[in-house]
Structures are given as structure tokens and as C-alpha cells.
Design a protein that fits this description.
The chain has 161 residues and is α/β, with parallel strands linked by helices. It is built from five helices and five strands.
Length: 161
């Protein structure tokens, strides 16, 4: 298995979209970055990343975590300006996220905050999958699970990674 291919066995491969939001502060509607990676046939087929202008203040704690500042997003699009492009990539595929309850809550809050017609999207949570499939992992935080599975290192608070 390499970092970009997964075969579930018996020729079964997965099609899904990995999603990750970063927020400007503790409010779920304050998304300041989003990343999508489309997996088809177990391989990376497409990826998308953009900063988002949440039109709100950034907390120092969030800036320390992801390194995105208010000045970085001044000219960035807002969620409604990128949702069409995001949804085009997602289509009918399920979303997958580490701690999906957070990312799905951010998405729901963005729909409400920006008056964007919400859509129903199937999703899976890799934290829950990790707990079920890797019970011996020292932790189910993303860096620990990645290390346990011997995946390449990445910046887990960078939505593009």
C-alpha cells in the first residue's frame, strides 16, 4: 500500500472525498480554509484547497494551530463563492473526515450562516474507524493514527494536506 492507493481486498476499492476545514475561531461557521481530496478507485483523482474569508475575527489559539491569519484571507472568496465548485467535486460521493462531527457541523453552520441551500451528504468518520480497526493504536488523534499506520508525515492542521 502506498500513500495514494488503498485496495479493500477482493478488488474492492473506495471512492470518497476527504474533507478538512480550518476555522478562524471557536465558532463553527468561521471556516477560513477548506481542503478536498477526491479518491476514485483507491487513488487520488483530484484535490482542491482554498482559503476562505469568514468575515470574522481570528483567535490567537486558532492561528497558532493552523498558521492562517486574518491578513491571509482578506482577498479570499467566501463560502458561497466556492460551494458550487466544492459540490461539483463531491457529487454523490460520501465525505470522509477525521473527527467528521466537527467538519460536518462546520459545513451545516456555513449553509445556515451564508443562506446556502443545504444538501444531504453521506459521511464517515476516520476517528470512529480508527477506534474500530486499530484498537491497539496509542491514540486515535490523526498524527498518532497516521504514525501507527506508517503513513507519510503531513501537516494535519493544513486542510490541503
Amino acid at each position: 500500500m502506498d500513500a495514494y492507493t488503498w485496495d479493500g481486498g477482493a478488488g474492492m476499492s473506495l471512492d470518497f472525498v476527504a474533507i478538512d476545514f480550518e476555522t478562524a475561531n471557536s465558532e463553527w461557521g468561521s471556516a477560513c480554509a477548506v481542503g478536498l481530496t477526491v479518491i476514485r478507485g483507491g487513488r487520488v483523482a483530484d484535490s482542491y484547497y482554498t482559503l476562505l474569508n469568514p468575515h470574522c475575527a481570528f483567535s490567537p489559539q486558532c492561528i497558532r494551530i493552523h498558521g492562517i491569519h486574518e491578513s491571509d484571507v482578506v482577498d479570499a472568496p467566501t463560502f458561497p463563492e466556492v460551494w458550487g465548485e466544492m459540490y461539483e467535486r463531491i457529487g454523490t460521493l460520501p465525505l470522509v473526515a477525521h473527527n467528521a462531527s466537527f467538519d460536518m457541523a462546520v459545513l451545516e453552520r456555513l449553509f445556515a450562516l451564508w443562506h446556502v441551500e443545504p444538501v444531504t451528504i453521506r459521511y464517515a468518520c476516520t476517528v470512529r474507524l480508527s477506534r474500530a480497526l486499530c484498537p491497539d493504536a496509542p491514540s486515535h488523534r490523526l498524527p498518532a493514527v497516521s504514525a501507527y499506520l506508517r503513513l507519510p508525515r503531513f501537516a494535519h492542521h493544513n486542510a490541503a494536506d
